[in-house]
């Protein structure tokens, strides 16, 4: 009894974060006190997180673990503790995954650095948590869109960009997010071939984090400054960035959120333009217009709901259903953000030209993505254009999994008063 008491006293004096090696794993204690907080166990043979005990409750699934890709197979794993920060480094020939754990914080911070795309063809971390410990999320199913009381659930939603949702985001869209199957799965996608428009980049991805709470939403602004001094491969601390852009922008539509992106083959950056300013010039024309359409029906919902559900495989329009929170596509009061051949095609715009507007004119239709060769074709009064060539194909689903970003295209038709059109 005396011995037990002194053991407890000894443990209570340990730093809040400490690492202890067991036979083939390293165990990290995040919280204060003996049983409080999170205790994380990492397999030193492959870097899998095999146990996440929070306030005495096991959150990790026991058959499938929390890991990069679908597990690294084998990896070299080292750990160190300094200044109440434990740093676990998981290394393969192409991957270095740093998982720092800060004092007294029930959060696993992660930074992933790669020199080659993983064999699974996408870069992702999957937490496979215990379904019995974390039962919520059963409505979000795996394969892969489900209807619950008229609303849709999918592992793909939402696609809200990271710059608008720091808790659940990817840079421009979030890929697979979470699903409850045999495990409760959470995903952090760094890249994938879903609606892929650019070549994969390598280098550092992150920081990102798995934050465990007692039920409250985790903070939307996790403080990752402590990672600045850890020497993670490829990590650049904000304090080490000397070159900033400043200036102004113009030529954008008023009332529309502006995102400015910078990219080359090595990196990409983006900024929500409101309130900041950057001098940019573009080779894109901003033509003066007689009219243009802006503000598209359901555009505000597409990133988090399903636009079209095939009920009983039937293509009858009356049986097409969207998430009930969306406006009906067919009876559109404003131009729909997506056109589906079997649902809302054609869409008719009625416009009466004033005498001064009649003359040689150009109609441009710009699209951000197309699927299965979908492309615009126009009819003006009695004239019907030929169909333009099929747009370049983008792999995998787009609008039906919550993203609209693809390979931007423009179709142009010119006509003069006699309505002879050509493109
Ligand atoms: C989680 O599940 C419990 C038990 O079924 C339920 O009472 C609670 O409302 C759920 N919470 C959320 C956020 O869905
Ligand atoms: C973030 O953490 C650092 C120490 O790692 C601290 O110096 C800084 O004040 C913190 N920032 C905020 C906003 O809390
Ligand atoms: C941006 O343009 C404005 C107006 O031409 C100019 O005054 C300012 O110096 C420019 N800023 C940069 C960073 O070039």
Automatic annotation (TrEMBL):
Boundaries of every Rhamnogalacturonase B N-terminal domain copy: 36-169
UniProt keywords, alphabetically: Lyase, Signal
GO biological process: pectin catabolic process
Range of residues in the leader sequence: 1-19
Every Rhamnogalacturonan lyase domain range: 294-412
Keyword Cell wall biogenesis/degradation among record annotations: no
One protein family per Pfam: RhgB_N
Molecular function terms from GO: carbohydrate binding; carbon-oxygen lyase activity, acting on polysaccharides
Keyword Signal: yes
InterPro entries with a match to the protein in the record: Gal_mutarotase_sf_dom, Galactose-bd-like_sf, GH-type_carb-bd, RG-lyase_III, Rhamnogalacturonase_B, RhgB_N
Domain of life: Eukaryota
Protein name per Swiss-Prot or TrEMBL: Rhamnogalacturonate lyase A
């Amino acid at each position: 009894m005396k011995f037990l008491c002194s053991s407890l006293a000894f443990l209570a004096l340990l730093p809040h974060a400490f690492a202890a090696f067991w036979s083939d794993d390293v165990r990290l204690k995040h919280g204060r006190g003996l049983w409080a907080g999170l205790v994380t166990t990492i397999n030193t043979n492959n870097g899998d997180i095999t146990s996440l005990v929070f306030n005495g409750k096991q959150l990790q699934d026991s058959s499938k673990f929390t890991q990069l890709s679908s597990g690294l197979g084998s990896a070299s794993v080292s750990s160190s503790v300094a200044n109440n920060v434990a740093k676990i480094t998981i290394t393969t020939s192409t991957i270095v995954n740093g998982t720092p754990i800060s004092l007294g914080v029930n959060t696993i911070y992660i930074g992933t650095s790669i020199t080659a795309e993983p064999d699974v063809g996408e870069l992702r971390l999957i937490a496979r948590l215990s379904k019995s410990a974390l039962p919520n999320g059963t409505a979000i199913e795996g394969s892969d869109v489900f209807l619950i009381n008229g609303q849709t659930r999918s592992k793909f939603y939402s696609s809200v960009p990271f710059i608008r949702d720091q808790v659940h985001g990817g840079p421009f869209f979030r890929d697979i997010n979470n699903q409850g199957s045999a495990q409760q799965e959470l995903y952090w996608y760094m890249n994938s071939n879903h609606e892929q428009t650019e070549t994969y980049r390598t280098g550092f991805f992150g920081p990102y984090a798995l934050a465990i709470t007692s039920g409250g939403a985790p903070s939307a602004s996790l403080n990752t400054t402590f990672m600045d001094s850890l020497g993670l491969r490829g990590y650049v601390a904000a304090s080490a960035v000397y070159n900033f852009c400043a200036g102004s922008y113009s030529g954008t539509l008023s009332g529309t959120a502006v995102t400015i992106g910078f990219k080359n083959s090595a990196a990409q950056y983006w900024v929500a333009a409101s309130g900041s300013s950057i001098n940019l010039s573009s080779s894109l024309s901003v033509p003066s217009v007689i009219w243009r359409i802006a503000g598209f029906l359901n555009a505000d919902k597409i990133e988090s709901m399903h636009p079209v559900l095939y009920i009983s495989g039937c293509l009858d329009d009356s049986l097409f259903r969207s998430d009930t929170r969306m406006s009906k596509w067919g009876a559109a009061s404003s131009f729909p953000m997506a056109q589906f051949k079997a649902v809302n095609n054609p869409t008719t715009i009625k416009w009466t030209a004033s005498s001064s507007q009649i003359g040689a004119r150009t109609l441009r239709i710009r699209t951000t993505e197309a699927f299965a060769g979908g492309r615009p074709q126009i009819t003006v009064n009695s004239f019907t254009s030929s169909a333009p060539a099929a747009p370049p194909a983008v792999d995998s689903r787009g609008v039906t999994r919550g993203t609209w970003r693809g390979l931007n295209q423009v179709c142009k038709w010119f006509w003069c008063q006699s309505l002879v059109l050509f493109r």
